[in-house]
Amino acid sequence: MAFPLLTLVNFTQGIEEKTVSQRQDPELPVRLLIPAINVNARIQDVGVALNGEMEVPNNAIDVGWFKIGSRPGEVGSAVVAGHIDGESGEVGVFANLYKLKEGDLLYIEDDKGTSITFVVRKKLIFDPGYADEVFSRNDGAHLNLITCDGLWDGVKKSYSKRLVVFSA
Amino acid sequence: MNSGAILKGRAMVQTGAVTLDGNTITAPTCAASPSSSSPNGPSTLASLATAPQYTCPTIGIGIIAPIIIESRRVDADSVFVSWGPYSGTDKFNVRYGMSKDKLLYNVDVTGFSTTINALPSNQPIWVQIAARNECQIGTYEASRLVGGPSLPSAGFGPRENKAPWYFLVSIFNRFLSRR
User: Fold this and answer.
1) Which of A15, A29, A48, B84 has the fewest CB neighbours in a 10 Å radius?
2) Cα B27 from Cα B10, distance rounded (Å)
């Protein structure tokens, strides 16, 4: 929530004496913790790639929060993506995402030090492409985690499926 | 007018011109207007000349801001949205934009769904909807992201085992160096 700048003016002298910034930047997610699969990852901000896909973090150990969508804890779907593997063959941060089960806890820490807790509700496998269910829920505060699944397609340079863990 | 004619009042022309040659034109005085105090009497000329007062009707009582029921991306530059419930009107204003706080575009819709076309390609679209009538727009529901991006490709695939190739290349290089 943004507040207007508060300006204190010394009217007797007719000059501005002091300016105090009252702006409060909205809380931004900075860390994702998933104890059940030993994830403690830094959160990068990501947007939309030129091909229309959600962007992904630029390394295999961070996760990427879709900054154009809802913030974690807001009404709407906050979406976080992470790699299943890395460019050099290393294990990605979401390599074990498939192991999550209903009831597991996820935690998002914001830049003010606040922790928001989410509970895993379900896992779904999607084909690549649009999935409005992942981005557009409006009936509560949702956190959806995405990574790849299925078989590697060497021609398309992409996995054949997408795994989404829904939590709220 | 003929020369020397006498006219009481005004002369107007439909086509051509009024030409005056020795004419006499007089302007009779108006009769006193009837009083407007009589409740059943005719209106005064002044009141007749006043423009009719149009009152914008308010959005009907009980009409609520609709909620988006279904939304999906149709293709890279269009999204489909439907909403409800019916609460007394089927006229709505759909406001949309590419950021949650900057819904710069809007369109009036009669009905409970629409497809918004000609959007910036593959950009997420935020939408909110309000009931409207012919001159007012009601309260909007909270904006909602309706055109999300495609699911990301978050993997690089298994590494190819290139050891056999490296082995063959090293043998070939040794062979070349001996020659």
Assistant:
1) A15
2) 8
Instruction: Tell me the residue range of the domain where B117 lies.
Output: 67-145
pLDDT digit string (tens) for B96-137? Answer: 998 888 899 999 999 999 999 999 888 889 999 999 988 889
- Please write the tens of the pLDDT for every residue from A79-132: 999 999 998 889 999 999 999 999 999 999 999 999 999 999 999 999 999 998
Distance CA A75, CA A138 (A): 6
> Would B27 be classed as within a structural domain?
no
Domain assignment present for A51: yes
| CA pair distance A73, A140, nearest whole angstrom | 9
Examine residue B174 and state whether it is found in any structural domain, yes or no.
Answer: no
Number of domains in chain B: 1
Contacts of B145 in chain A (CB under 8 A): 68-70, 76-77, 135-136
Q: How many residues are there in chain A?
A: 168
List the structure tokens of A18: 């002091």
Nearest to A67 by CA among A50, A89, A84, A45: A45
Calculate how close chain A gets to B79, using CA atoms only, in Å. 10
CATH code assigned at A107: 2.40.260.10
- Per DSSP, B9 falls in state S
CA distance B48 to chain A (A): 51
Domain count, chain A: 1
Q: What is the CATH number of the domain that holds B98?
A: 2.60.40.10
